[in-house]
Amino acid sequence: MSQKVLLVQSLQKSFGGLRAIDSLGFTVAEHQIKSVIGPNGAGKTTLFNLITGIVPPTAGTLEFKGKILNGLKPHEIACLGISRTFQNLELFGNMTVLENVMLGRHSRTAAGLFSTGLRLPGMRREEKEIEEKAYAELCFMGLEDKALGGAASLPLGQQKLLEIARALATEPRLLLLDEPASGLNIRETEKLAETILKIRERGITVIVVEHDMALVMEISDDVLVLNYGRKIAEGPPRDIQRNREVIAAYLGEEVNHA
Amino acid sequence: MKRKDLYALLGVVLAILLFSWLAGGKEYYLSLLVFVGINSLMTMGLSMLMGYAGQISLGHAAFFGIGAYSSGILTTKYFFHPVGAFMIGIFLSALIAFLVGKPTLRLKGHYMAVATLGFGEILFIVFNELSSLTGGPSGLSGIPPLMIFGHPLEGATYLYLVWAFVILLLVFSLNVINSRVGRALRALHGSELAAGAMGVDASRFKVQVFVLSAIYASTAGSLYAHFITFISPSSFSFMFSILLLMMVVVGGAETIWGALLGTLLLTLLPEYLRGLEDFEVLVYGAILMVVLLFMPQGILEGMRKMLGKNAGGRVGSP
Amino acid sequence: MRNPFPQMTFASQLIQFLFTGLTLGSIYALVALGFTMIYNATGIINLAQGEFVMLGGLTMVFFTGVLKIPLLIGFLLAVIAVTLVGALFERLAIHPLKNASLITLIMITLAGSILFRGIAMFLWGKDPYALPAFADSKPVQFLGATIQLQIFWVLAITLLVVFGSGFFFNRTLLGKAMTACAFNPLAAQLVGIRVRRMILFSFALSAAFGAIAGAIITPITLMEYDRGPLLTLKGFAAVVLGGLGSGVGSVVAGFIIGVLESLGAGLISSGYKDAIALMVLLLVLWVKPSGLFGSKEASELKKF
Q1: In A, which residues are within 8 Å of B315 by CB distance?
Q2: Who among A52, A116, A150 is closest to B316 (CB)?
Q3: Does residue B278 belong to the interface with chain C, where contact is any CB pair within 8 Å?
Q4: pLDDT tens digits, residue range B18-43?
Q5: pLDDT of residue B269 exceeding 70
Q6: What is the pLDDT of residues A63-113, one digit of tens each?
Q7: Which residue among B172, B191, B198 sits closest to A106, beta carbon to beta carbon?
Q8: d(CA C78, CA B82)
Q9: What number of C-beta contacts closer than 8 Å exist between B and C?
Q10: pLDDT surpassing 90 at residue A202
Q11: How far is A217 from chain B (nearest CA, A)?
């Protein structure tokens, strides 16, 4: 039986007079790869910001594995098991590639000021484990040879992969990818598709915001279409492709068929 | 510990032994080294707050003062044991840092800067006004020197005491920096948004490092009080807070070693300016301005670049 | 300080404190206006603001006291001189750092304040200096309180400057252009506003306001080389209380703080009087950083 990982009900977000998200409701089932698509400004990144607690909803509820997310701070939500990447990269440019991913282990570890300052044995064990797990994620994303370089020195495509590695290090149950393919060439996008499928194999549920339709069609179990903050369609990729309203919403936009 | 840091640490230890031998027992030089040590305790804490966590404090002299006055008042007026007074100073500083830090570190940039400036100034006024306790502007004298087995610690032995503290706290700091906590702090500096999304409780860590830096400063204050045996509010003015800030920025805020270099340079600077007292403030202002305009990453980074090494400080290990 | 004027009734004392407070408040209001101008044009807080006041007072002392230039001309010369200092400061120290990090920007204005203080200490030493009152006249008796005439000069000039700048920023194209710059420098440039010039202008104008404040207050309170920092802090308290970005708010808040300080000094204790404004600053920052007249959204929109 497929459990509901994320339940969104009557979600609304207004910025002053602007309704960024309007009466939105949908679910995401366990181990699903769900894509969220829609024209620019449709509210996709706002949706991610609502789920991860960066902005509070004006109305409605967000539920993650039965737990209400409303009112929780971003770091609390991260500890619950939701992680994400950012549309405009938010890497830690002042740290190495490996250190970026090691930071991902933060919510799963506990050493505080005292035990780290004194380098207590428990902390040393934990530190070793952090390094190992982080390195493993780098290998998973194919970045292991860049481990000791500066995060800022990577090319864009690899920086995007690094963000995914960092998010994976948090051991999420739900992973939100915000336009992971933007700025990637065709070969890199292919690799990304494989990677996302492999992530699902690890037991992680994935929500992807994307503009690249070929990628969306290839990997998604289910597609949610937003326009002006409202849901205009939801269903398997095949159905969405044929949906008249969806096509109309994209009229004038470049629809990227492979 | 990282190898680079270990070598640098050994370098510091050797340097202290060397300089204390070179000083040849002369009070003047020994005092200088003691002051470098005392200032280093404070700038190490500031460096962790500013360089690593990316926050700012323009009022740290206040915690220096709390430590100094706690040690001073409790040992002279209430005959506390120096260690007890020292602990109380630490406790007071930590408590006040916690209470002040929580609302202040939530603020953004300029607001935080001015709030800490205001806080430091308020404490300065308190030091001046509570004259029954602190001795007011005329200061507090007769602070007993520290004793070990009945012998007072002075001169070279005090030097070793202070630098023992410095080394200990330096090791502690380096451990923190190269750990989960250090990464969390640096992540906050790099991108507070992403740090939060990865589970870092920004507010908690910011306050923690603020409290830690206050404890460092309080330690420095207590050591200061027992060394010169006379303290007055003028040592804890906002000008001193700015001077500490300068030491960190001029040396290089990005790393703790930069802060130490800056401390060395700017503690010795007044000695070069002796007799040029009219110029003192002017020179400080000029130095700060020149560094900010031409070497904003600090002298340590500037030297590294000149020696042709990679701009190592930001990318890679600290 | 128990009862400084034993012959006066309590009501008269209050009036005395009120006038003193309004006088102080004028200076804080002018400093706050200076802050707001620079903030509106550049988004940065100029921690050297108080030094412009100090320089205004001391240069006027130089022109009128040393060079024996008549008061009015000396006043104008002092304001012009400090305005030039402000412009130079912007050109040499602020402009080169336009892309620097926040900490660097804070520190450069701090460096400026230290430098100005150092120059002042070098040129004038540490002693306070006096200026003669603008008009030689006996103090006025008002409801039992004794009011120096200079106080009216202070209030009048301050109100003139305040209304003048209000008119300038809201009615003139140049003034509105300056406000547009901080909000969206790119958009401002696209509509043809020379952002660089606006920024320079805002610093120059700020310095002018500071200088005026220094010149008018020195006859009452004297002026010494290190008056700057406390003025900066209190002026900033007014800015925060009034709401960053709101000129009207800053001015009103400046007067409020001045009166609070004066009442506190007279009724409670004069030793802690400086702490009053500082406590206001901290409380506002901690509880409602957007101040009395600012809106929460507006303060979040701005960079800092």
Answers
A1: 93-94, 96, 149-153
A2: A150
A3: yes
A4: 888 887 778 888 888 999 999 999 99
A5: yes
A6: 999 899 999 999 999 999 999 999 999 999 999 999 999 999 999 998 889
A7: B198
A8: 54
A9: 128
A10: yes
A11: 28
Radius of gyration over every alpha carbon of chain A, rounded to an integer in angstroms: 19
- The domains of chain A, with CATH numbers, are 4-81+172-250 (3.40.50.300), 89-154 (no CATH)
Determine the Cα–Cα distance for residues A61 and A48; give it in Å rounded to an integer: 14
pTM (predicted TM-score):
0.89
Spell out where C113-261 has E strands.
140-142, 145-147
Q: Which residues of C touch B289 (CB under 8 A)?
A: 93, 108, 111-112, 115
Q: How far apart are CA C39 and CA C37, in angstroms?
A: 5
Q: How many angstroms separate the CA atoms of C37 and C201, rounded?
A: 10
* Cβ contact, residue pair C282, B122, below 8 Å: yes
Residue B33 near residue B189, CB atoms below 8 Å: no
Looking up tokens 């506390």 gives B80
Question: Which residues of chain C does B279 touch, with a Cβ-Cβ cutoff of 8 Å?
Answer: 118, 122
B119 touches chain C (CB under 8 A): yes
Strand arrangement of the beta sheet that strand A205-209 belongs to = A82-84, A174-178, A205-209, A33-37, A222-227, A230-235
What per-residue confidence (pLDDT) applies to C182? 65
Look up the ipTM and state it.
Answer: 0.90
> C289 — contact with chain B (CB < 8 Å)?
yes
Residue in the structure block whose two tokens are 């939500």? A77
**Cα–Cα distance, C111 to A137 (Å, whole number):** 46
Q: Which of A82, A113, A125 has the most B C-beta neighbours within 10 Å, making it the best mutation to test the interface with B? A: A113
* Weakest mean pLDDT among A93-102, A186-195, C17-26, C160-169: C160-169
Q: How many CB atoms lie within 10 A of CB B49?
A: 27
Residue A206 · residue A200 · CB < 8 Å: yes
**Average pLDDT over chain C, rounded to an integer:** 84
| Exposed / middle / buried, residue A244 (Cβ in 10 Å: 0-12, 13-18, 19+) | exposed
Better pLDDT: C224 or C181: C224
Please, which chains are in contact with C (at least 3 CB pairs closer than 8 A)? B
Query: Pairing relation of β-strands A33-37 and A205-209?
Result: parallel
pLDDT at position B161: 92
